[in-house]
Each structure stands twice: as C-alpha cells, then as structure tokens.
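new request in #modeling-help
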Amino acid sequence: MTKRKAIFLDRDGTLVVHVPYLNSPDQLKLLPNAVRGIRLFKEHGYLIIIVTNQSGIARGFFNEECLTFIHERLKDMLEKEGVTIDDIYYCPHYRKGAVERYRIDCDCRKPKSKMIYDAAAEYHIDLKQSFMIGDSETDMVAGKNAGCTCILIKDTEIHGQNSVSGIDADYCVKDLFEAAKLFAR
Ligand SMILES: [Mg+2]
Ligand SMILES: [Zn+2]
C-alpha cells in the first residue's frame, strides 16, 4: 500500500482568525486565502489534517462537546466553499489546568508531535512527504521533530520581520494559498 502525503494544519491563526480560547462557532472566521490554499493542496492529493492545541478545555473555559460543535461548524463552512478536511486532532490537556482529568503533562500538546504521529498511523502517511503549516514556533517544532517540512504562516508586512525572527521554519509565507502555490504541484 502506498503511503499518502498530508498537510498538517494548525487551526488558530493559520486557518481561522486567532481568537484566544475561541468557544463559540460564531467566532469562527476563515483567514484570507485559506480556502484557496486547501483546495489547491487537495487537488494535488494531500490529506488535510488539523492539529490544534485546545487547552481551554483543561482550563475549564469550554468542554469537548462545545469543541466538537465548533469543529462541525468549521467543516460546514469549508464544505460550503467546496473543500473538505480529512480529520481534526486536538489536544485538550494542560499541565496546570483547572479540570482534573485534563490536567496532565501529555504527549500531544504541541510542540510535542503525538497528534502528527497518531494521524500518520491512522491514515498511513509518509511524514517525509508531508508538511506542517502553522503560525507559531510550537507548530514548527512539532512538525520538524516528526520529520515534516515546516511552513510558517506570517504576513511580515502586517506583523513585521521581528514576528518571525528566531522561529526555525523551512519556509515563511503570508497565507495558505501562497504555501500551496509553492508545493502543490
Ligand atoms: Mg496558531
Ligand atoms: Zn494533550
């Protein structure tokens, strides 16, 4: 069986506008060019898998049911634009959280790579042919340690050059479409 290639995608600040501890579907707003980028990657055979830290669950700001509801809406929004994502992995943990069952020092919270490894096992993904795309250093570390090529999303015209200094990424682009134009071929 041949292995698949995937785009591991951070959610907040990469696919949707970053809202701290986003806890309602009404706060979801797709970032410019996100849909175009995903569409192009899909056309070139990439699986699209979201990997997202959601410590708001451990902190007691919202629960897993709420997160599932938010993710259903996100999938609907994308489907209305004609793109489907293949799966969403999330980490609900935080080692200093308020909710006991999530208060652990887990292996899934980025910069750790367990969500990527779990997806790779489930979907038979070749990590060397795959990309981690995100807007923070933790995304880049998680992707790098898993053997993926790492793409940082940062519009330096808006955020300034300092926003990317010190972050070890393979590439830096302003949005998902720019990323897809580089690699979906
Ligand atoms: Mg992010
Ligand atoms: Zn976790």
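bot summary: The chain has a mean pLDDT of 96.
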